[in-house]
Amino acid sequence: MGKKPNLTGLSRFLPQDFLNPNATSLSEKSQNESTLAKKRKTDIHGPVRTRYDATALVPHYTTAHEVPENLQKYFSQRKRYFSLYDQGCLLDEEGWYSVTPEAIAVQIADRCRCDTILDPFCGVGGNAIAFAKTCEHVIALDISPTRLALARHNAAIYGVADRIEFILADYISFANAYLSRPHPTRRIDVVFLSPPWGGPGYISPSKNHISAYDNADLQDDLETHSQYSLSRLQPIHGADLFRLTKRISDNIAYFLPKNTDLNEISALGLLEKDESVAPDDESRMIEVEEEWMGSKLKALTCYFGGLVAGQEHAF
C-alpha cells in the first residue's frame, strides 16, 4: 500500500476491522468477491437509482422559491457544490453550508492519491466522492445517520458508491478503536481532516446574535477579520485532533477556515518531530494551500508528511 499515481484496482475494508460495538456500517455485504475485485468505472452521465435512494429524507430544491431564506445564498451555488445537482444530489441544512465545493474537493483529491484514505467527517459526501476517483478505497465516517445516507445517495449518483465504506461512528471512538488493535490488518495511508468549524458564523469577528443568512454574507464581504483558533474546531481542540490522527498516519490533509492562525498551524509541525522520525531525518515541512473560487478565498488545506510537495519520500 502507499501513494499511487493512478488507480490500480479496488480493495475492500471489512467493517469489523475498524468498528467498535457502537458503530454501524452502511456498506453493502451482499456483493460477491469477483465483482469487488474489478475496477469500477465512474458513470457521470446518468443517476443511479438503487437502495441508496434517500429522497425521502430531505427536499431536493429545484427552484429558488422552494428554498428557506437562510439557504438561498447556498442554493445559488448548488452546481459549485455538486455539478450533478440536477440529477438528484441531496443536502441537509448543515450540508448546504459545510460541503466542500466540487472543484476544491477534486483539487484536494488529486493531491491525496493513495490506496486507502479516511474521511472522518464526510458530511454529505463532497470530498468522499472526489476521493473515490483518485484512491482505491475511501472510508467515510459521520455521526449523523441522515448525512451518511445522503452521502451514499450522492455517491451513487456519481457512480462511486461501491468504492466508499460508509460507517456511522464518531471519529474519536473510531480512531481509538483502530489504534487499540494490536496489529491492525488494514493500513490507512492518508487522513483528510475536515472537522466542523462552528457553523456559518465561524468567521464573524464578534459574538453578536445575527442570523446565519447575515453571517453567510459576512463571510464573503469582510476583508479583515479575527484569526480563527484551532481551539474552536469540533469535537475537540484542533491540535489534539491532529495529534490523534498522526498516530494513524503521518500523511494528513487538514481543511481549515481561511482565517486560521498560521502560527497555530506552524505549531503543528512540532508534532512532526516524534519518535517515528529518525534523528538524522530532514525537518518535516508543512504546505499550506489556499483554496480559491474565482476571486474569493474559501479555505486553507494544510498538507503534512508525504503529501507535501517535494516530500513524497516521507509517504
Protein model, in words:
The protein is an alpha/beta fold and 315 residues long. Helices cover 26% and strands 13% of the residues. It has eleven helices and eight strands. It has helices spanning 33-36, 72-75, 78-81, 93-98, 102-111, 126-131, 145-157, 171-180, 212-221, 238-246, 262-268, and strands at residues 24-25, 116-119, 137-142, 164-168, 190-193, 252-257, 287-293, 296-303. An eight-stranded mixed beta sheet has the order 1-4-3-2-5-6-8-7, sandwiched between helices. α6 links the parallel β2 (116-119) and β3 (137-142). The protein is globular, with a radius of gyration of 19 Å. Mean pLDDT is 81; it is low at 5-24, 27-49 and 205-219.
Q: Layout of SSEs?
A:
Elements: E1 24-25, H1 33-36, H2 72-75, H3 78-81, H4 93-98, H5 102-111, E2 116-119, H6 126-131, E3 137-142, H7 145-157, E4 164-168, H8 171-180, E5 190-193, H9 212-221, H10 238-246, E6 252-257, H11 262-268, E7 287-293, E8 296-303
Question: Could you write a compact summary of the structure shown?
Answer:
By secondary structure, the chain is of the alpha/beta class. It contains eleven helices and eight strands.
Keywords:
single chain, 315 residues, alpha/beta, eight-stranded mixed sheet, 11 helices, 26% helix, 13% strand, globular
Separation of termini?
Answer: 10 Å
- As a whole number of angstroms, the C-alpha radius of gyration is 19 Å
Largest sheet: 8 strands, mixed
Supply the number of helical segments. 11
Number of strands: 8
- Tell me the series of helices and strands, N- to C-terminal: EHHHHHEHEHEHEHHEHEE
Unreliable spans are 5-24, 27-49, 205-219
Which bin fits the share of residues in helices? 25-40%
Could you give the order of strands across the largest sheet? Answer: 1-4-3-2-5-6-8-7
Overall mean pLDDT stands at: 81
Percent of sequence in beta strands: 5-15%
| Class by alpha and beta content | alpha/beta
Question: Outline, from the CA principal axes?
Answer: globular
